[in-house]
């Protein structure tokens, strides 16, 4: 069907009494079914947007819902209605709210009149239910006190209606208990929770009635799912003093269509912690524990019939249906929940040993399944168990368990079991982050993208295996040696088995005694080297080599104690650096730097039987060792040797080693600089430029490790580097002037920029390192600033480097007050040019934004004197830039800007420009930050908003700001801010009542020393800002909130008064009716 402009115009004409719903159906159909981006879809999207944004659109909802023949049109109308209920409900007359409520209720009843309708209208019903829950959040229990009675009574008249009503109750529970944060004012949310708890009796009776009497499977499953949502918050008597547990275990657990939902409910009951019943008498507590035991024993009785202990769950997993796999997952959750919370009941009673054994057998059975999510569930339990056993052993002074030491306490119960757990965990060990070679389609390949989920799982498994090894290192040792023997003899050789075993071996470094670790590791490495020799084929050798490198890299303690072995390992790594298989060279370099970092002292010492320190030999042979490596790998090699040199404590020897290390790249540098002097066009050669990039990155690798000793190398190249920097800038600017901005994407210009950027990175890392000589840095800084600042401000924006901002930020942070004479010049060259680049939008020059605010932060932290020389207009530009950063959609930029503003507030309290800042700009900054903080799109930075705003309110309240905030001000600063913030709220949220505004402002002051409460108070403000209010403010509970604020203020003042000097000694005080002095704050 085509659509005319006249039809579209009539649809948007809200003066008419009704609309042609078929036209709206056509438009919505165009939007959902047309080709994305086509003219019809764009037109439909525009019309739908205009319709939805019209303030009277909700009044068309009833007609649309009754006449529409297209389901998505009905959903569109319900979304409009839902939005109105959430934001404007309080503004609607009572007869309209009653009408909407009754209409939604009747539609819901009609759509659920029979099970066939339930199935046909399931999507529509989900939307209707969501709208009804929004109404309930507005009206129940004050305006709709009979809701619980109504819905429970109606549910008993019809099974289909009962099923949908249970879904509504489930949604209501989720909205109140799970999703209320940030959606409902805290006090109101608490009242809703209390009301639902108080009226839960009829709801429970309905659920119990359904579970006992219903015959329709979908209704029973709905009752189970609804009960599941209730179990985490209902009064505990409904769980343990009713027939609920017996119903779940005996009636539904063994029925396939109900068992998954039933196990979910049982898992929730099993997870109820001990502190949930801590306030009840001991007799009742024992009764509840007995009920928990009955629950477990009853469930196990059913489970043994459903899933015999001899079942090969791991073998049937991949052929099982989704429902069967879901059953195993629910069983895992149930068992682990029960054992973590109540396992001590089984451990303490010998008569329950059989029950305990059945639980452990099931846990082991499930742990063997090759499913990551299932393994995570079981791993959490094994980790908890092993951790508690280890804590008990160490607390009792028994330490590690040895063959000659009889284990005591709970460990007796788990000794044999944990041996099997060790084997299971080792066989499923995830890949560590350091391993770069993975198996894909039967081939070992280089991994480029990190799997963060696997990395986190590895960390969790490693912790568990460490605990298990501490409990019995001999058993872990035995298991690993047996597994390795079977791999070496070929009976169980596979890449997977070898990988998981070696990853597990690497993960337990440091858990054995020194002697045991030595025997174990020597045997492992010998076996792996033998395996590498015995296996034919490059793929096999690559996998084995990767595992050897990983294992040796994980045992630095052993390597440090056995020099000859360490030297052999390093020489083997050098051999692997010539291996061409993808990933082997990377792992060799990564393992080399890991060993160099952990064992660096060993390389600079002259070992027994050696004629010189091994680091010298490494440097002497570096050319041959690295000849097959890429430039990036060579840079890693330089960094590793730099780590070794950093261990040399003699400054002269350390400097000599740096010069020795840099001799090879310096010879290339000298040749290049000589060639450039003879032929300047050499700097237009791509190969020459790439050599220079490599040179500076090697310098960066060494500078980042030895720092102070690197200053000799820096002095050797510094002047030429600065001239090179200026030359590169000139070439880049010239190219942009001749060919336009697009030239910056060409390889030659990009490499020129890389040269310039890497020069700056070398300098940046030297300013960062604390052990670099302050005097030497101060001597170099004027030359650096001379070349960098003028180039930055004078060149075109497209030619600038954001690294300049980072370098100068580090320079300011490091040199501090000694840089004050140059601070004005720095500010002049960096501030305005950068602001002009980024101020137009939030997209252009993205790489400059974070460094710019980091540089501003460094200036503020160093000195605020630079701002004293600025006029109010100039200082306003600085503040505008910072506040612009606070609005930035890039989270790290906004966080950095907010931090700068906080530090500026702190510094301003004692700065010479205090009057300039506080009198002219404090209220303006407060206004801007409040508007940002109350805008939902900036909610991600709420913690930072809270920190800044609470600081600002406290600065006013405690008298730190002792200058007037406004010209001609006659009242105290506290009163000025109260009035200002109140007016601001009324202006931006005109629907706020005076009582609301008063409570909100009081909260800002009452909670300014309690970040958590301040954040919740701010969140409540955002919630209220979305809701248009009428004269009835009952559901905001303002009186109750005001009482809470008064108590919070009193607690805060009492806490501050207990700290001598915390309260302003010049503040006004007033006496209460009892004659007690209470502090007041004024300007």
TrEMBL record:
<dbReference type="GO" id="GO:0051028">
    <property type="term" value="P:mRNA transport"/>
</dbReference>
<feature type="region of interest" description="Disordered">
    <location>
        <begin position="1063"/>
        <end position="1083"/>
    </location>
</feature>
<dbReference type="Pfam" id="PF18787">
    <property type="entry name" value="CRM1_repeat_3"/>
</dbReference>
<dbReference type="Pfam" id="PF18777">
    <property type="entry name" value="CRM1_repeat"/>
</dbReference>
<keyword id="KW-0813">Transport</keyword>
<dbReference type="GO" id="GO:0031267">
    <property type="term" value="F:small GTPase binding"/>
</dbReference>
<dbReference type="InterPro" id="IPR001494">
    <property type="entry name" value="Importin-beta_N"/>
</dbReference>
<dbReference type="GO" id="GO:0006611">
    <property type="term" value="P:protein export from nucleus"/>
</dbReference>
<dbReference type="InterPro" id="IPR014877">
    <property type="entry name" value="XPO1_C_dom"/>
</dbReference>
<keyword id="KW-0539">Nucleus</keyword>
<dbReference type="Pfam" id="PF03810">
    <property type="entry name" value="IBN_N"/>
</dbReference>
<dbReference type="InterPro" id="IPR011989">
    <property type="entry name" value="ARM-like"/>
</dbReference>
<dbReference type="InterPro" id="IPR041123">
    <property type="entry name" value="CRM1_repeat"/>
</dbReference>
<protein>
    <recommendedName>
        <fullName>Exportin-1</fullName>
    </recommendedName>
</protein>
<comment type="similarity">
    <text>Belongs to the exportin family.</text>
</comment>
<keyword id="KW-0509">mRNA transport</keyword>
<dbReference type="InterPro" id="IPR041235">
    <property type="entry name" value="Exp1_repeat_2"/>
</dbReference>
<dbReference type="GO" id="GO:0005634">
    <property type="term" value="C:nucleus"/>
</dbReference>
<keyword id="KW-0653">Protein transport</keyword>
<dbReference type="InterPro" id="IPR013598">
    <property type="entry name" value="Exportin-1/Importin-b-like"/>
</dbReference>
<dbReference type="InterPro" id="IPR045065">
    <property type="entry name" value="XPO1/5"/>
</dbReference>
<dbReference type="GO" id="GO:0005737">
    <property type="term" value="C:cytoplasm"/>
</dbReference>
<dbReference type="Pfam" id="PF08767">
    <property type="entry name" value="CRM1_C"/>
</dbReference>
<dbReference type="Pfam" id="PF18784">
    <property type="entry name" value="CRM1_repeat_2"/>
</dbReference>
<dbReference type="Pfam" id="PF08389">
    <property type="entry name" value="Xpo1"/>
</dbReference>
<dbReference type="GO" id="GO:0000055">
    <property type="term" value="P:ribosomal large subunit export from nucleus"/>
</dbReference>
<dbReference type="GO" id="GO:0005049">
    <property type="term" value="F:nuclear export signal receptor activity"/>
</dbReference>
<dbReference type="InterPro" id="IPR016024">
    <property type="entry name" value="ARM-type_fold"/>
</dbReference>
<feature type="domain" description="Importin N-terminal">
    <location>
        <begin position="44"/>
        <end position="110"/>
    </location>
</feature>
<dbReference type="InterPro" id="IPR040485">
    <property type="entry name" value="XPO1_repeat_3"/>
</dbReference>
<dbReference type="GO" id="GO:0000056">
    <property type="term" value="P:ribosomal small subunit export from nucleus"/>
</dbReference>
């Amino acid at each position: 069907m085509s659509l005319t402009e006249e039809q579209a115009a009539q649809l948007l004409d809200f003066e008419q009494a009704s609309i042609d719903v078929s036209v709206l159906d056509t438009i919505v159909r165009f939007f959902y079914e047309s080709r994305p981006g086509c003219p019809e879809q764009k037109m439909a999207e525009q019309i739908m947007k205009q319709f939805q944004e019209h303030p009277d659109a909700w009044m068309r909802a009833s007609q649309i819902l009754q006449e529409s023949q297209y389901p998505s049109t009905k959903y569109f109308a319900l979304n409009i209605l839902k939005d109105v209920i959430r934001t404007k409900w309080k503004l609607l007359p009572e007869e309209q709210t009653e009408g909407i409520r009754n209409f939604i209720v009747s539609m819901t009843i009609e759509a659920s009149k029979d099970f066939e309708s339930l199935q046909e209208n399931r999507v529509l019903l989900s939307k209707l239910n969501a709208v009804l829950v929004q109404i309930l959040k507005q009206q129940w229990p004050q305006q709709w006190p009979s809701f619980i009675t109504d819905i429970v009574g109606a549910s008993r008249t019809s099974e289909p209606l009962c099923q949908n009503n249970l879904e509504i109750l489930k949604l209501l529970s989720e909205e109140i208990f799970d999703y209320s944060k940030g959606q409902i004012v805290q006090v109101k949310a608490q009242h809703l929770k209390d009301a639902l708890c108080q009226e839960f009796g009829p709801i429970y009776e309905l659920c119990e009635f359904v579970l006992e009497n219903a015959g329709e499977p979908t209704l029973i499953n709905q009752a189970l799912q609804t009960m599941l949502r209730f179990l985490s918050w209902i009064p505990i008597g409904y769980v343990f003093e009713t027939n609920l547990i017996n119903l779940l275990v005996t009636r539904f657990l063994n029925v396939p269509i109900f068992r998954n939902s039933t196990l979910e409910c049982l898992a929730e009951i099993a997870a109820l912690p001990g502190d949930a019943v801590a306030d009840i008498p001991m007799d009742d507590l024992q009764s509840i524990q007995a009920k928990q035991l009955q629950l477990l024993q009853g469930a196990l009785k059913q489970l043994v019939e459903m899933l015999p202990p001899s079942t090969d769950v791991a073998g049937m997993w991949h052929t099982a249906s989704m429902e069967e796999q879901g059953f195993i997952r629910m069983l895992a959750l149930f068992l682990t929940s029960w054992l973590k919370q109540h396992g001590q009941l089984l451990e303490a009673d010998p008569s329950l040993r059989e029950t305990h054994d059945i639980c452990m057998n099931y846990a082991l059975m499930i742990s063997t399944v090759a499913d990551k999510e299932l393994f995570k569930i079981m791993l959490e339990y094994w980790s908890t168990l092993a951790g508690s056993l280890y804590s008990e052993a160490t607390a009792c002074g028994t330490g590690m368990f040895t063959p000659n030491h009889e284990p005591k306490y709970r460990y007796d119960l788990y000794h044999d079991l944990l041996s099997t757990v060790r084997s299971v965990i080792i066989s499923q060990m995830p890949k560590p982050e350091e391993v770069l070679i993975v198996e894909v389609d039967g081939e070992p390949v280089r991994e480029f993208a990190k799997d963060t989920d696997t990395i986190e799982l590895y960390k969790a498994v490693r912790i568990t295996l460490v605990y298990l090894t501490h409990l019995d290192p001999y058993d872990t040792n035995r298991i690993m040696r047996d597994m390795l023997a079977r791999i070496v003899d070929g009976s169980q050789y596979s890449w997977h088995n070898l990988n998981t075993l070696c990853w597990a071996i690497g993960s337990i470094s440091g858990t054995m005694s020194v002697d045991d670790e030595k025997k174990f590791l020597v045997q492992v490495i010998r076996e792996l080297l033998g395996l590498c020799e015995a296996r034919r084929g490059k793929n096999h050798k690559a996998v084995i080599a990767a595992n050897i490198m990983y294992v040796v890299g994980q045992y630095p303690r052993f390597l440090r104690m056995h020099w000859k072995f360490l030297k052999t390992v390093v020489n083997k790594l050098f051999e692997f650096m010539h291996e061409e298989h993808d990933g082997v060279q990377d792992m060799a370099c990564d393992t080399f730097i890991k060993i160099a970092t952990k064992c660096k002292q060993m390389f600079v010492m002259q070992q027994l039987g050696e004629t010189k320190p091994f680091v010298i030999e490494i440097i002497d042979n570096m050319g041959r060792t690295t000849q097959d490596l890429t430039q990036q790998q060579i840079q890693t090699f330089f960094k590793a040797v730099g780590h070794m040199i950093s261990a040399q404590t003699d400054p002269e020897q350390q400097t000599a080693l740096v010069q020795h290390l840099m001799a090879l790249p310096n010879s290339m540098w000298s040749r290049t600089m000589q060639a450039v002097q003879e032929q300047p066009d050499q700097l237009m050669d791509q190969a020459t430029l790439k050599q220079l990039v490599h040179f500076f990155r090697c310098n960066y690798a060494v500078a980042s490790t030895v720092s102070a000793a690197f200053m000799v190398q820096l002095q050797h190249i510094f002047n030429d580097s600065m001239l090179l920097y200026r030359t590169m800038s000139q070439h880049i600017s010239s190219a942009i002037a001749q060919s336009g901005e697009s030239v910056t994407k060409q390889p030659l210009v990009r490499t020129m920029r890389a040269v310039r950027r890497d020069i700056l990175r070398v300098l940046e890392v030297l300013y960062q390192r604390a052990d670099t000589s302050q005097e030497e840095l101060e001597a170099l800084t004027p030359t650096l600033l001379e070349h960098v600042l003028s180039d930055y401000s004078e060149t075109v924006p497209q030619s600038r480097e954001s690294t300049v901002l980072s370098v100068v930020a580090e320079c300011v942070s490091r040199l501090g007050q000694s840089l004050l004479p140059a601070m004005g010049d720095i500010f002049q060259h960096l501030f305005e040019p950068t602001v002009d680049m980024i101020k137009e939008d939030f997209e252009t020059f993205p790489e400059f934004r974070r460094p710019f605010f980091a540089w501003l932060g460094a200036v503020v932290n160093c000195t605020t004197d630079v701002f004293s020389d600025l006029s109010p207009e100039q200082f306003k530009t600085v503040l505008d830039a910072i506040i612009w950063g606070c609005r930035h959609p890039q989270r790290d930029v906004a966080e950095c800007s907010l931090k700068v503003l906080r530090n500026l507030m702190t510094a301003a309290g004692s700065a010479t420009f205090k009057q300039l800042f506080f009198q002219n700009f404090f209220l303006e900054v407060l206004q801007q930050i409040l508007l940002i903080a109350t805008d939902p799109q900036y909610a991600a930075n709420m913690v930072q908003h809270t920190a800044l705003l609470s600081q600002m309110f406290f600065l006013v309240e405690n008298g730190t700001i002792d200058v007037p905030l406004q010209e001609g001000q006659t009242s105290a600063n506290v009163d000025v801010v109260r009035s200002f913030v109140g007016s601001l709220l009324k202006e931006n949220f005109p629907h706020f009542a005076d009582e609301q505004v008063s409570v909100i402002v009081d909260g800002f002051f009452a909670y300014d020393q309690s970040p958590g409460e301040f954040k919740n108070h701010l969140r409540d403000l955002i919630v209220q800002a979305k809701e248009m209010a009428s004269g009835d403010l009952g559901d905001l509970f303002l009186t109750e909130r005001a009482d809470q604020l008064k108590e919070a203020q009193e607690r805060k003042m009492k806490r501050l008064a207990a700290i001598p000097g915390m309260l302003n000694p010049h503040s006004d005080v007033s006496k209460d009716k009892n004659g007690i002095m209470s502090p007041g704050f004024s300007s």
